[in-house]
Write a structure and sequence with these properties.
Helix content is about 50%, strand content about 10%. The chain is α+β, with helices and mostly antiparallel strands. It has a domain of about 300 residues: Cytochrome P450 (Cytochrome p450). It is globular. The chain has a 5-stranded mixed sheet with strand order 1-2-8-5-3. A 3-stranded antiparallel sheet has the order 4-12-9. It has a two-stranded antiparallel sheet with strand order 6-7.
């Protein structure tokens, strides 16, 4: 039996930090910083943020109402569209109604079960290529995870375009994500988008570099889309439904969306899973043995199905450190959430970080316990209390892809290497859009066998 382990999370006071702290200091750098103990016990909270009325439902039935039962009444917020427009325009992540449905239909075919299963061997190829560079000693596994997932996205969605896996691209992605809080404040105050700080300037340059690179990649594929990969099929599908200029713009929007979201969230899932296992060596050995046995049977499409223990560990990792700690909706018309009045224009903020650690929904919620996801314990659980990939019609279209990718990479890495904590290294949560280990994740590596 694995000893109880409570991984790090930000401190919780009796009261939440003031709203204005959301734009300065640690609260502006880490989305999950500053919540009080109350937030993990309440079923509903409401806050006023710079004139925006924000509802925070923490009852799975109410979350289901927003994301599924009355999903058509809850659109992507105008503020989010303004914040993300320079990078991803009107792609799948930010669009609504008919435009969203058309793009979803085109994109979904690329992530159908059969299409994802066929890519599992390619995930393994990338993981094995990583192993060729490694030597015993300390290694920043957050960086290794990012490099691997960028290569997966490049290989499987963009025919291995080397421009998407460069060191420059990695640096610009990190800078673009770091600058979100500054841009968020400007948008909420109705101010022009312009950098205020060195971090803001780096973010703007990073965003421009990434957008320019993806626009170039798309432009080179026009008009017929080129190779029969995700991008090629996307360009052809959009070209059949939209005018040429709009189709090209939407292709760039979606290329940027899937390039960024497609690698960043999975990289973080890999990092947190390796961290959790590094702190539980006996469990890590069991997972490694399972991985070695599964790989010995072949590396085909059914590999993820032969990793039940690893899947439970990954799902628990996604519970403790969800890829997106929050996502928002905006009410189109008046509604009621659990007896609370919602007015048109109100923001409804869904927090997987709070739901996944809520004391009414989980036993010992801050404890790392993969057995939560064993078949008997998951039975009867409300489907909207665990939402690492969202829920309802807008459930992440790449959820199966990300899960299979993470399992295939972890199987290769864990079966061959042992991961141990770096002595004296404090691991902290960091990030506004996604949750990363602050400053990376140095771990000590040694070969197995």
């Amino acid at each position: 039996m694995t000893a109880p382990f409570v991984p790090p999370h930000p401190p919780r006071g009796e009261r939440p930090v003031p709203v204005w702290r959301g734009f300065f200091g640690e609260r502006a750098r880490t989305a999950v910083y500053g919540w009080s103990e109350r937030a993990f016990r309440e079923r509903y909270m409401r806050r006023n943020v710079l004139g925006f009325r924000v509802h925070i439902p923490l009852d799975p039935d109410v979350v289901q109402h927003v994301l599924l039962d009355n999903a058509s009444n809850y659109a992507k917020p105008d503020i989010i569209k303004k914040l993300l427009a320079p990078a991803i325009g009107e792609g799948l992540l930010t669009s609504d109604a008919g435009l969203w449905r058309e793009q979803r239909r085109i994109v979904a075919a690329n992530f159908a079960p059969a299409a994802v299963d066929a890519l599992v061997p390619k995930f393994g190829e990338v993981a094995r290529a990583s192993l060729e560079r490694w030597t015993p000693g300390s290694r920043n596994m957050a960086r290794e995870a990012t490099r691997a997932t960028m290569q997966v996205i490049s290989n499987t969605l963009f025919s291995g375009d080397a421009r998407l896996t460069s060191e420059a691209a990695m640096a610009h992605i990190a800078a673009a994500l770091e600058g979100v809080s500054e841009a968020r404040l400007q948008v909420m105050l109705g101010l022009p988008r312009m950098p205020w700080t060195a971090r803001g300037w780096k973010a703007q340059r990073g965003q421009a570099y990434l957008r320019g690179t993806l626009e170039t990649v798309v432009r080179e594929r026009l008009p017929d889309g080129g190779p029969d990969d995700f991008l090629g099929r996307l360009i052809r599908g959009l070209g059949e439904r939209f005018a040429p200029e709009q189709a090209a713009e939407l292709a760039a929007d979606n290329a940027m969306t899937f390039y960024l979201a497609g690698h960043e969230t999975t990289a973080n899932a890999l990092s947190w899973t390796l961290f959790l296992l590094s702190e539980q060596p006996d469990l890590q050995d069991r997972v490694a043995d399972e991985a070695a046995a599964a790989l010995a049977q072949g590396e085909g499409a059914d590999l993820p199905d032969r990793l039940p223990l690893m899947r439970m560990v990954l799902e628990e990792s996604l519970r403790l450190y969800p890829p997106a700690p929050r996502f928002d909706r905006q009410a189109v018309e008046a509604d009621r959430l659990g007896g609370e009045e919602v007015r048109p224009g109100d923001i409804v903020s869904i927090w997987p970080w709070l739901l996944h650690r809520h004391k009414d929904l989980w036993e010992r919620p801050d404890e790392f316990d993969p057995e939560r996801f064993s078949p008997d314990r998951r039975a009867g659980r409300h489907r909207f209390q665990y939402i690492p990939f969202g829920g309802g019609p807008r459930l992440c279209v790449g959820a199966r892809f990300a899960t299979a990718e993470a399992l295939a990479i972890l199987a290769q890495w864990l079966s061959r290497w042992r991961f141990e904590p770096e002595p004296g290294r404090e691991v902290r949560v960091h990030g506004m859009v996604t949750l990363r280990p602050a400053g990376g994740l140095p771990l000590r590596l040694s070969r197995r066998g």
